[in-house]
Amino acid sequence: EAGVAQSPRYKIIEKRQSVAFWCNPISGHATLYWYQQILGQGPKLLIQFQNNGVVDDSQLPKDRFSAERLKGVDSTLKIQPAKLEDSAVYLCASSIWGDRSYEKLFFGSGTQLSVL
Amino acid sequence: KQEVTQIPAALSVPEGENLVLNCSFTDSAIYNLQWFRQDPGKGLTSLLLIQSSQREQTSGRLNASLDKSSGRSTLYIAASQPGDSATYLCAVISSGTYKYIFGTGTRLKVLA
User: Fold this and answer.
1) Do A42 and B45 touch (CB under 8 A)?
2) Is B46 exposed, middle or buried (0-12, 13-18, 19+ CB in 10 A)?
3) Nearest to B84 by CA among B106, B105, B65, B109
4) Which of B44, B53, B88, B89 to mutate to test the interface with A (most CBs of A within 10 A)?
5) Residue B102 and residue A105: Cβ atoms within 8 Å?
6) pLDDT value of residue B40
7) Which end of chain A, N or C, is more open, meaning fewer C-beta atoms within 10 Å of its C-beta?
């Protein structure tokens, strides 16, 4: 079974530039998550999709971050313009969307973003 | 609001030692708790999932316990090996939500 695919693995940009990350979840997984992980901290949920609808985006800085999940499969997360504090690892995860008692999360390898 | 805490933040042990990692959560109304492993520069890998109705789960040298009433979980690693060196994170799904809340992790180093 193929895992969660993310690209790019690394990205270095200057502040005020824009950047986009791509994620392809595990086939058949209805739920897709974007997390931000700052060094030394646990992942923080930015946005959660079920199919192509948004379930939770309460912690997404909507003035600069946007995300979409067209056709309920692939997803793109964009930052425009980037700030120094956006330097972090951006993780994509997916899950089936079923009984929450045994809902398992599967993560991609992440994109390490450095904003200079 | 659910908060998840992990203690200690970092741990260094000699190879072969048995060790315990701790995870605490403030709201006991959860669906499940998961333990993850994260290697440097990598994503998270699920190790064990404990449903709210369960008390423990085992996989190889790993054993995770859950005491929902006290808001605690422990991850026990037996006979630690240098390959166990990684950051271990716990996460819970609170009842009424579909969102995992993560702890900050315990960075483990097993010395050969």
Assistant:
1) no
2) middle
3) B109
4) B44
5) no
6) 87
7) N
**pLDDT tens by residue, B6-63:** 999 999 999 999 999 999 999 999 989 999 999 988 889 999 999 989 999 999 999 9
CB nearest A41 (choices: B93, B97, B104): B104
- Please check whether residue B57 is in contact with residue B49, taking contact to mean a CB–CB distance below 8 angstroms: yes
What residue type is assigned to position A95 of the chain? S
Residue corresponding to tokens 């930052």 = A79
Tokens of B23: 């995870």
pLDDT tens-digit series, residues A50-68:
888 999 999 999 999 999 9
Task: Give the side-chain half-sphere CA count within 13 A for B97.
Answer: 17
pLDDT of residue B62: 97
The residue-averaged pLDDT of A43-48 equals 95
Q: Bridge-partner residues for B100, per DSSP?
A: B93
- Beta partners for residue B67, in sequence order: B72
Residue B9 near residue B49, CB atoms below 8 Å = no
Closest-CA residue to A58 (of B1, B44, B33, B43): B1
